[in-house]
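Q: Structure for this?
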Amino acid sequence: MLEAFANGFSGLLAGFMHLQISNVVMIIVGCVLLYLGIKKDFEPLLLVPIGFGCILVNIPLANLMEPHGFLRTIYDAGIMTELFPLLIFVGIGAMTDFSPVLENPVTFLLGAAGQCGIFLTLGLALALGFTELDAVAIGVIGACDGPTAIYVTAKYAPHLLGAVSVAAYSYMSLVPVIQPPIMRALTTEKERMVVMRATRKSVSKTTRILFPLVITILGGLIAPMGLPLLGTIMLGNLMRECGAVERLTKASANEIANVVTLLLGISIGATMDGKIFLQKQTLIVLALGFVAICLDTACGVLLGKVLYITSKGKINPLIGAAGISAFPMSARVVMKEGQKYNKKNYLLMHAMGANAAGQIGSVIAAAVMLSVLKGMGII
Amino acid sequence: MKIELTSPIPGKIMKVIVSVGEVVNEDDEVMKIESMKMENPIYAPAAGTITAIGVKENDEVEVDDLLLVIEEGG
């Protein structure tokens, strides 16, 4: 009788007995992510489910990521199939107004420059000895675009998924901290003071409907490997701009995006098992991701300076920093920086143009990269 | 001299901070406009007395819509 009690009691202690130091560390990491999300307002919609998923997967004996565990089921259904990031993209397309780009097409260039970090970091990762596929996944953190990073990593380097997505989402929320010093270092006070008035030009409905169609067909033909990314974001945008399917647009931008964000977050968190996550490699990935975003910002601002010169001082180089696709954070950063030097300067709409261009730019950059790798026979 | 302050950005008037008859300094915050889910402070273009306000809270504004008029030096 007594023995039965003792055995039963030991069943309750088994979890503690199997708790490894790596699990304890990761449970703390999960709590830190929760803290950043809840108290510091760093991308809470993502960090809360990611942090909690991280805690769940590090509790021993529950086997949530083993076959038939519920986290494994969600992960296999949505991440391994790449469905979740793509569904999020439909929502992003439905939420994004690309008209600031169409009003000021020069911002397309800034959106392209903001992606340079991807390729520079890719080179850096190769130099550090990462395999080609791992280097691709690390470079894509520089897209500063969570779903793109997850899509590419899940497909080609799933063992880095936890590190890459944590890097992508936490740096994205740190954009207001990371960008301003780089922007200041690379511009002169005179350049930062340049006033750019918003224009009242409006883009016709036909243009706004044709835009997603043309981008999808042209982009798809140039970089077919990226068509899932480009096609979903542009489908969402077409639904938004045509105005004929308001219910679908709203569902994509709200209900579907919310449900998928929850499932995506928790399954990303579930990849953060201590045994896999606590490696030197993870730290290097985090460091390289940081470098990628700094390089993106620098390239954007430098192209902004070129435009400042070619436009004879009419373009404020600060808007180049919004060429990364952290939407709309970096446009807000630009607006705030600009107003710091000239209270009557409202760069918001121009920065939004560069920012929306960066959104497309990151998708196109990823698509081009995948198609080039395919051409080289690497994937 | 009358100075017209027009909206530098499209958006929604979140808050009108000043009222007609109030004396303001240059660069005082006079309104907040919400644009792209961001709160944007709008500053007085010159020192003077507010003689007219063209918008109220929750109004949608376009670029160049009249926000308020300041009688300079007043």
